[in-house]
Design brief:
With about 525 residues, the chain is mainly alpha-helical. It has one domain: Sodium/glucose cotransporter, CATH 1.20.1730.10. The protein has helices spanning about 1-20, 30-35, 40-70, 75-100, 110-115, 120-155, 160-205, 210-220, 225, 240-245, 255-265, 270-300, 315-325, 330-370, 375-395, 405-430, 435-455, 465-470, 475-495, 500-510, and strands at about 230-235, 235, 455-460, 465. A two-stranded antiparallel sheet has the order 1-2. The chain has a two-stranded antiparallel ribbon with strand order 3-4. A hairpin with a 2-residue loop joins strand 3 and strand 4. The protein starts with a helix and ends with a helix.
Length: about 525
């Protein structure tokens, strides 16, 4: 059994490596390595954006949360769907035009610097630092997902599994750059969708619809109606703070550099329109079915019940595939292919995060701030070395096998969303925002998340806890609006933007690019 599953993984990873190697010669300069020469078609851009967005969280974190705590966790999916739709409608097109108008910017930090005429590169430096801090945590979550996946299905040590996954992701990102990442993301996005649709349908067919509710009750959920009620949490009506905090995940989209960079790389407006439709349909199907997997998996896997200890419940999708294709049927190779869908989700996010992080170091810090006349070959070399260094640090963060994928993603998503989200939105839609306002917004947003999630300030039951633990409010919800407040106030009390910047804003608004 294990042989066939391992064979499926080897073939899949070999394909990803082939794509990386085949794209090496296409990277003639930094524009190619970081944006693929702005040549993405609609389908590739859409699936690349959404696959890099969802990560192992879609197939492990979200179903696991539903499995363990009930459908009240689905408010996160609602927030993410709303955020995806609004991001594609209001941000994608205008950001693509603005990055071209603002000096053909290759990265989000470079765009912000050019957008505000930041000759001292203050915004570029702040952006690069924020990206490095939070993407290290984000990439670690992807590595941790890979470690849990390999260790579960091949019965090898978590740390060995972690190393295997990290090496594969590192190799094709290091070699192929943006085009390799996007092409692999396209393949991986399709695999994720097929797997996430097929597995719950097969599980229900085997289990029978009449056994779902009885099995849920027997598995220890208590009142099944409460477990299946999105408005009930821990047997009580869900609080407004809990709903708002979960919906607030949607605010993060406009501040995710690894998603925004896909908008910048789309070939033209026609392809962008196609991407928008494909992406919205993909994310709707994926989020709905991921929630269904949590419920169906609880019933299907019974009498086995996954523990809350060490976030073992995040393996529900893995365990469903293993049971369907190795116990209830003898099709281990097909099961291995579907398990590759989880690997696809993990790899599609980790590679994007590594690439964005490396671009922040090489293009934004080294070339943008410190060595402005650096040659293209040197930029590419530093980018590739940066990929290696970042991967090693993320690997160290993911070393703990009991780390929660949901927790790591939550922290990173909040930090990036609060730091970049309000600044990106206001840069696209408010002419009055200026350099001091943008800097204040980014710093205040990132600082609020760090303060909220990591600094223990409050006494609770005889122990010091964070504001996040004490209030139950998601740090992104707080950080986003703190950042927005700082942007507005600081912009209004400091000088207006120059006529040149104001004219550039009007040109983008009117489509004169």
């Amino acid at each position: 059994m294990t042989f066939w599953i391992v064979l499926a993984f080897v073939l899949y990873m070999g394909l990803m490596m082939f794509i990386g190697i085949s794209n090496v010669k296409k990277n003639k300069n930094a524009d190619d390595y970081f944006l693929g020469g702005r040549s993405l078609n609609g389908w590739v851009a859409a699936l690349s954006a959404q696959a890099s967005d969802m990560s192992g969280w879609l197939l492990m974190g979200l179903p696991g949360g539903i499995y363990a705590f009930g459908t009240n966790q689905a408010w996160i999916a609602v927030g993410l769907f709303i955020g995806t739709v609004l991001n594609w409608i209001f941000v994608s097109g205008r950001l693509r035009r603005y990055t071209i108008k603002a000096g053909n910017s290759l990265t989000i930090p470079e765009y912000l610097s050019n957008r505000f005429g930041d000759k001292k590169k203050v915004l570029m430096a702040i952006s690069a630092i924020v990206i490095l801090i939070f993407f290290l945590v984000y990439t670690a979550s992807a590595f941790a997902s890979g470690g849990k996946l390999f260790s579960s299905i091949v019965n090898i040590d978590y740390h060995t599994a972690l190393l295997i996954g990290a090496i594969v992701i590192l190799a094709y990102t290091f070699l192929g750059g943006f085009l390799a990442v996007c092409m692999t993301d396209f393949v991986q996005g399709m695999m994720m969708l097929v797997g996430i649709l097929a597995v719950p349908i097969i599980a229900v067919a085997i289990l029978g619809t009449g056994n779902i509710i009885p099995n849920l009750i027997d598995s220890g959920v208590g009142d099944a109606s409460d477990y299946l009620n999105i408005f009930v949490e821990n047997g009580k009506p869900i609080t407004a703070v809990s709903i708002a905090s979960q919906l607030a995940w949607g605010l993060g989209y406009c501040g995710m550099p690894h998603i925004l960079v896909r908008f910048m790389a789309i070939k033209d407006e026609k392809e962008l329109s196609k991407s928008r439709k494909v992406a919205i349909v993909w994310v709707l199907l994926s989020l709905v079915v991921a929630c269904v997997i949590g419920v169906v998996g609880r019933a299907y896997l019974y009498p086995d019940v996954l523990s809350n200890e060490g976030a073992a419940y995040e393996k529900v999708y893995i365990e469903m595939i293993m049971k369907i294709f190795t116990k209830d049927s003898n099709l281990p190779f097909l099961g291995g292919i579907l398990l590759c869908g989880i690997l696809a989700a993990i790899m599609s996010t980790a590679d994007s995060q590594l690439l964005v992080s490396s671009s922040s170091i090489s293009e934004d810090l080294f070339k943008g701030v410190f060595f402005k006349n650096m040659k293209e070959k040197t930029v590419l070399l530093i980018a590739r070395v940066s990929v290696l260094v970042i991967a090693v640090i993320a690997f160290a963060i993911a070393w703990n096998p009991d780390s929660s994928i949901m927790g790591l993603v939550s922290d990173a998503w909040a930090g990036l969303g609060a730091a970049f989200g309000p600044t990106i939105l206001m840069s696209l839609y408010w002419k009055r925002i200026n350099l001091p306002g943008a800097a204040a917004g980014m710093i205040s947003g990132a600082a609020t998340v760090i303060l909220w999630d990591y600094i223990k300030l409050i006494d609770m039951d005889g122990a010091k806890v964070t504001l996040s633990t004490y209030t139950g409010a998601y740090s992104l919800l707080i950080g986003f609006f703190v950042s927005l407040l700082f942007i507005v106030v600081v912009s209004l009390i400091t000088p207006k933007v120059s006529d040149e910047i104001a004219e550039q804003f009007d040109d983008v608004k009117n489509g004169n690019v």
